[in-house]
Amino acid sequence: MDNPVLVNVTRGSLTESRHRGSLAVVDSAGKTVCALGDADARVFPRSAIKALQALPLVESGAAEALDYDDAELALACASHNGEAIHANSARVMLIKAGLSEADLECGPQWPQRMEDAAELIKVDEVPCQLHNNCSGKHAAFLGLAKIMGGATKGYVNPEHPVQQEIKAVMEQLTGDTLTSDICGTDGCSIPTYASPLRSFAKAFAVFGTGDGLEPGRASAAERLYEACVNEPYMVAGAGRFCTEVMEAFRGRVFVKTGAEGVFCAAIPELGYGVALKCDDGGTRGAEVMMATVLERMLELNEDEAKAIDRQVNPPVKTRRGAIVGDIRPTADFLTALKTALG
Amino acid sequence: MDNPVLVNVTRGSLTESRHRGSLAVVDSAGKTVCALGDADARVFPRSAIKALQALPLVESGAAEALDYDDAELALACASHNGEAIHANSARVMLIKAGLSEADLECGPQWPQRMEDAAELIKVDEVPCQLHNNCSGKHAAFLGLAKIMGGATKGYVNPEHPVQQEIKAVMEQLTGDTLTSDICGTDGCSIPTYASPLRSFAKAFAVFGTGDGLEPGRASAAERLYEACVNEPYMVAGAGRFCTEVMEAFRGRVFVKTGAEGVFCAAIPELGYGVALKCDDGGTRGAEVMMATVLERMLELNEDEAKAIDRQVNPPVKTRRGAIVGDIRPTADFLTALKTALG
After folding, report:
1. If you write DSSP's letter for every residue of B58-79 in order, what string do you get?
2. A184 and B325: CB-CB below 8 Å?
3. Chain B partners within 8 Å of A324 (Cβ)
4. pTM of this prediction?
5. What is the Cα–Cα distance from B31 to B338, expressed in whole angstroms?
6. Domains of chain B, residue spans
7. Pair B28, B212: CB distance under 8 Å
8. What is the C-alpha separation between A66 and A240, in angstroms, rounded?
9. pLDDT for A106-153, tens place per residue?
């Protein structure tokens, strides 16, 4: 199945590049509200499901035992910029579990922004694993491993109890069966299981509403949702879609990006979850797709509209800052959404 | 027309992302040897045609008058990393024309690689226009403007004599008529005219052979071709496709990347030019496409095969360096090339 072109990149009066994609909007009962492209193909969710991967930490009582606060729980769900505030918070999460940077198995990564990289360079440092955009998630995995007892070493391996717990949660929320043949290794070395977008959308509808979950898991989902919308800076950082949109929406939506053009959202007031993938893995395509879905599905106040407008139609600029094109949803995308959403 | 999927990105045993594209291989008489996807759609060539944009500099005698050497001519055709050697060479080109960094109109840009950015940060500097990947091209434009007489200021504007000269050359080599409605502004502020891939492929066949050109222009093309293949480090820099492939091929091919997934090549021994575009603008897709075309069109020696193998099938790695997938040409792409090229 050929997924449709959902986003165009223009220059002057011509379209310069195109992003195809697929998406699913599903309610907590699993009913599809809208599907564009192939919503049944298996897609690696990558970092878009970090909030779901954090459920065992909270549900088990480990988060409470370790005294993780909202900012730290948000960091557990984050793909952060590696700013000092993010790296320091990951360090504190590890200290609370009696562990350190050396226990992480995610590998090092330069901070996303040059100004944060410069802070390291100026003091002759190189980035460590705390700067990895996944360090909060990994600190949370280690915290859970510590509270569960047994070895913390090897917590990234599919057979480790932490990854087995997460797999069980993902199977419940997606309704999918996760087997080794659909398992890849994420950039931070943990297993990532490919499921249909439809299944991830359902999982986020459930995450945002708690519908059908046993009380402990529903309460863990609510705790993590609240942590992220209360501390959106910890979920990403300066200049980032997830941070800016969650700041403006003040609890109305949860949004989370993943590598290779995946984007997921939970919209509790509608009872919907959203999952989408830009075919080519492009972040700019996925961001315009998600912003367009949010814009078309929700009545927006001024702050929300301002935050979404920036993401629906970002400019293409020269290195002197002149606007010479833009990134925008295609007319077909808008028509398809209108048809599906009414 | 839907362009075919030419490149897959895998993770574990699944395809994670896909790159569609179109390409044309054309001889210097304009006969199409191979066309995949829509080779007639207009595409902005961006930086892939810098070597053609440098023709007026050499043909006019300006390059000789300014005493530009091979390295400087290669830099005029470059999208370089902004390493010290590139920035310094651009500075010398300007000095030779009695000009300075302040005369550039390309805007500043951070060096491509963190280690080069770090050299600036350590001495409390920010990048200047010399670090812009296009600084050599802009220095060459200024050099030509100076020798032509008249104003150097505004040399990036479509109506400036330098840009008019370049437009005339592009019209001859592509056989296309370039009008304002197909003109966009490039990231470095100069005009970029969209033509079909078929036309750019023909232009590079002519560039590599000189076929059909008046002697002065043919000799300018030969001079620029030789400069780039003699000084491939100046065309891009450390770790870059254009540099590594031209180093290994020792004059057999000229290759040049452009923004938004454009890639062009000249293969004089076959009399062919190549132009391709990755639909979504992805560099990784365009690189695998170009490497695949070169691999299938030429008998390769050991060094050439080694350089191409790295580009045809690059690994996808975790942040700890483990290989967990790869980028590769699709089976359909290989079949189509085999059918077209025999």
Report:
1. HHTTHHHHTT--HHHHHHHT--
2. yes
3. 184-185
4. 0.98
5. 18
6. 5-341
7. yes
8. 29
9. 999 999 999 999 999 999 999 999 999 999 999 999 999 999 998 999
- For B67-101, letters b (16+ CB in 10 Å) and e give ebbbbbbbbbbbbbbbbebbbebbbbbbebbebeb
Contacts of A192 in chain B (CB under 8 A): 11
Q: Who among A132, A194, A280 is closest to B14 (CB)? A: A194
Largest CA distance in chain A: 61
Interface of B with A in 161-220 (CB under 8 A): 181-189, 192, 194
Give the pLDDT score at A342.
Answer: 74
Q: How does the average pLDDT of chain A come out, rounded?
A: 97
Contacts for B326 with CB less than 8 Å, ≥ 6 apart: B9, B10, B313, B314, B315, B316
Q: Tell me, what amino acid is at A28?
A: S
The answer to whether A198 touches A178, Cβ cutoff 8 Å, is no
Section B122-151 average pLDDT: 97
Q: Which residue has the tokens 């043949």?
A: A181
Could you give the ipTM of this predicted complex?
0.97
CA-CA-CA-CA dihedral for B46, B48, B54, B56, to nearest 10 = -70
Q: What is the mean pLDDT of residues A87-101?
A: 98
Contacts of B129 (CB under 8 A, 6+ apart): B101, B104, B106, B107, B108, B135, B138
The fold of B5-341 is Beta-lactamase (3.40.710)
Phi, psi of A42 (to 5 degrees): -75, 135
DSSP B199-242: HHHHHHHHHHH-TT--HHHHHHHHHHHHHHHH-HHHHS-TT-HH
| Region A85-106 average pLDDT | 98
Backbone angles phi, psi at A199, to 5 degrees: -70, -40
What is the separation of C-alpha B31 from the centre of its chain, rounded to a whole number of angstroms? Answer: 22
pLDDT digits (tens, 9 = 90+) for B203-243: 999 999 999 999 999 999 999 999 999 999 999 999 999 99
